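Provenance

Sequences were taken from public entries as deposited. Structures were produced by running a predictor on each sequence independently, with no templates supplied. The record for G-protein coupled receptors family 1 profile domain-containing protein from Nematostella vectensis is shown for reference.
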Amino acid sequence: MVASIMTLTAMAMFRRRLVMHPYRPKPTRRTVQLSIAGLWGISILCMAPLMAVSRVSPDGMECVEHWPKYVLNKVYTVALVVIQYAVPLTVIIVSYSQIVRYLRQHRPPGSRNHGHEVAEREVIRAFTAIAVLYTVLNLPGQIAWLQLVFGSLDSAEIWFTFSDLCLVAHSCANPFVYGTVTRRFRSGF
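Predicted structure for G-protein coupled receptors family 1 profile domain-containing protein:
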């Protein structure tokens, strides 16, 4: 999941760069490959502590975490919520907010036609949808992990079930929203 979230965050940053600095050279293939490798490296590092403390249960049906100190589980969970939710959310919102502000402030001369304004509004709506979808549909998973460590197991199980539905919904919605952004962005600007 961390790799997916990092990818969405990188896409927001890349879009921001394209809009606000259109004359900068495009990233080379090598740069893109290294960026993807870096995202996966960060994702693996984020999961390394979990891999280190996980053991197969005696019945062989599930993995169970065995932390040497319970406080480490709490620290890891909070760090993971920050890394895979709070930081990406901040970057996504800041990136898309800067794009929206830039589009409103830097209209080319003579672009005040109705078609351009409609396209701009649709791009802004799509960027807003991306941020809202990320915020709302990823939050239940973060709440579930925090409930598991700081709250009750019963409450966490309910949140995990709801979280699974939200993550599936997010995965289904993203291609449509990103497709809309790309199509509208290309046709309108």
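Helices lie at 2-20, 29-53, 70-105, 114-150, 153-188.
The mean pLDDT is 86.
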